[in-house]
Amino acid sequence: MDFLRLDAHDQLEALNAGRISALDALNLAIARADAVGGTLNAVVARRLDLARDEARRIDEARSLGEPMGRLAGLPMTIKDSLDIEGLPASVGRASHLDRRSRDADSVRRVRAEGAIVWGQTNTPIDAADWQTFNPLYGVTNNPWNLKRTPGGSSGGSAAALAAGISALEIGADTISQAGLAPPQTLDLDMAVVGPMARSARDLELLFSILSQRPFTPAPPKDLANVRIGLWLDEPGFELDPGMRRVIERFAKQLQDHGAIVEPASGPVSGGETLEIYTGLLYPLLWAKAPAAEMALYEALRGPAKLARRLGAGPLSWAQGVLAATARYRDWRATEERRAARIEAIDTFFTRFDVLLAPCAPTPAFEHDHGPRPTRKLKLSTGRRIDYLQLMSWPALATVWGLPATAIPVGLTDDGLPVGVQLIGPRDGDARTLGVARAIEERLGAFPAPPPLS
Q1: Contact 190/204 with Cβ under 8 angstroms?
Q2: Are the C-beta atoms of 92 and 154 separated by less than 8 Å?
Q3: What letter would DSSP give residue 46?
Q4: What share of the chain in percent tops pLDDT 90?
Q5: Half-sphere exposure of residue 250, counting CA atoms within 13 Å on the CB side?
Q6: Which numeric CATH code is attached to 3-211?
């Protein structure tokens, strides 16, 4: 039995039954990280002495029959955008390493339940890219194909999970919370911290700990009569044909298990969603941009307005310039547009239990560290598309504050995993997690990547 390939529930069961000690479990995780570190580069900073002391204390308390937290003795790594006491998050910048740090809120919550947090996993610089590399720690590779990225900004976390280094991780998007690196004063209402795991039941466990609110997991149910909207077509949104075939086969499997799967459009047009997304996000991201850079953007506002009137899309340079230089009245107007669509969102989820959509337009892509304006994504047909298309499919859940649970559904002809997101109604986390768990129990767990040599 490979202990590290078990999900968190089974690892915790072995710990609680005394079949393995917390110290031995920790040492196994460290050894796995060492074994694959040269090829994967997922774990980039460590607190080993402190972690081993914590593991010994857990073992002693367990031997004395003391009450245990829900994660007691489970080794965990944490994304390097979240501070750990004594191990500040760097987000790929050496200048952040000398900061004093305390546990970020999410880190404090898992440690309070007994998790042994022993290392940090790599992120792109400033946690602001869809691939994971930075000048401080270098490039993180995908365990399924080392020439490709594991994604971003939680790419190191994803690689650690897939390689069997960690059973639980904490992902973050547009993050703003106590313990953020670098610290910010602006609050991002699209920010989210969430669970990452290798099983749906583990997602439920970690979600309940991170959310710190009453959470009753939806009981695993038969897929019969679950209403699923299948969203694969949206004007302006790209989708690799090979991925489409995998997702359509998966949708057929759901139908074979009794689910009601119907083609659907997003509850709000993709173009409007992206306009609102960039209109709210870019002003905050550029709030501390250098004055010279902002002066250039201001000078481009006129041409940008003309380009938009002539048809430049929501992912164009023109929209980027206008959003980055938005006035307060522009921002307020965007917020009002978002609020006006909430009723349409709520109505949509009276027709469907969940909306099933791609997570991205392509599978994991090859490393590309060139200037962002030059980056392209290559489809299986050979056609190249804009790098910013990576913003398209995830935008719906982010903009409208909807829960989304990402699950793997198959492999492309090249052997790359394909994921989908199960999007639910506002405050419907239990629903998306419950459907994910039902799918996993009926269709089986997803295989691990081939062993790394």
Answers
A1: no
A2: no
A3: E
A4: 74
A5: 30
A6: 3.90.1300.10
